[in-house]
Amino acid sequence: MFLGSVxxxxxxxxxxxxxxxxxxxxxxxxxDYRSHGKxxxxxxxxxxxxxxxxxxxxxxxxxxxxxxA
Length: 69
Description:
Elements: H1 2-6, H2 14-26, H3 39-52, H4 65-68
Helix pairs in contact: 2-3
């Protein structure tokens, strides 16, 4: 969400966003459970917050378990 609100002011290009998504996907080791979820989940929440630019979009408390595990 924060990145979505400031990305335009950071003078970043599409390759920078792709690199961030790749780094997020690669973080945390294998697809085992981590404190911040699995790879696909981390990327999904990153994209969701970036696109929505709203705290409501990041409500993991009411999300289905399959989206936060």
